[in-house]
Design brief:
mainly alpha, elongated
């Protein structure tokens, strides 16, 4: 075994790379699960390993591989989750900078301060906050779409994890992370 950070996708067995199932099925399903985990910033290795195995068994039905702590699949899965997590902050920065650039007629500091008052940036129309439009802001929706929805595109149904529920109703943690990422910029 190598150190966790030393693994690359090319270290995966060739049978796992066929038809890009790793990137098009396995990883999107892992990200869907991770986005619904109670604390998506700190997923214990043993919890990740258990859920990665459940996902692996569905995506790679024909392979009878038991994932091991520190092995290539576990390590690459953890690396990809870490990259996905960091994308929330870096993408939020780009979205906010783009917004401020588009509104060059306003002082960026004053505009930013006004969006932070009563969390106006969370609403579809910051000038008319309504509980019905909370989390409908362009900032949150663009961040959610760019970072999370793109990452889970292609996920597979894993009955033991109820991935259908994660995809239809389990986004509250990811929405909260999106809102927090925008607020911290």
């Amino acid at each position: 075994m190598k150190p966790r950070s030393a693994y690359h996708n090319i270290d995966l067995p060739a049978t796992m790379q066929v038809n890009q199932r790793w990137t098009k099925k396995y990883l999107p399903t892992v990200m869907l699960w991770a986005g619904s985990y109670e604390d998506l910033w700190t997923i214990p290795d043993e919890v990740l390993l258990l859920h990665a195995q459940l996902i692996f068994n569905v995506v790679y039905k024909e392979l009878k591989i038991n994932l091991v702590h520190g092995g290539v699949v576990h390590s690459l899965t953890a690396q990809h989750i870490s990259e996905w997590q960091s994308n929330f902050g870096s993408t939020a920065i780009v979205i906010i900078l783009d917004f401020l650039t588009q509104n060059s007629d306003c002082d960026p500091v004053e505009l930013t301060k006004s969006l932070l008052v009563d969390y106006a940036f969370l609403f579809e129309d910051p000038d008319k906050p309504s509980p019905l439009t909370t989390y409908h802001s362009p900032f949150v929706l663009q961040l959610l779409g760019t970072v999370h929805l793109n990452a889970i595109n292609g996920y597979v149904e894993v009955p033991e994890l109820d991935t259908h529920m994660f995809a239809t109703r389990g986004m509250s943690r990811v929405i909260t992370v999106s809102a927090a990422a925008v607020s911290l910029i």
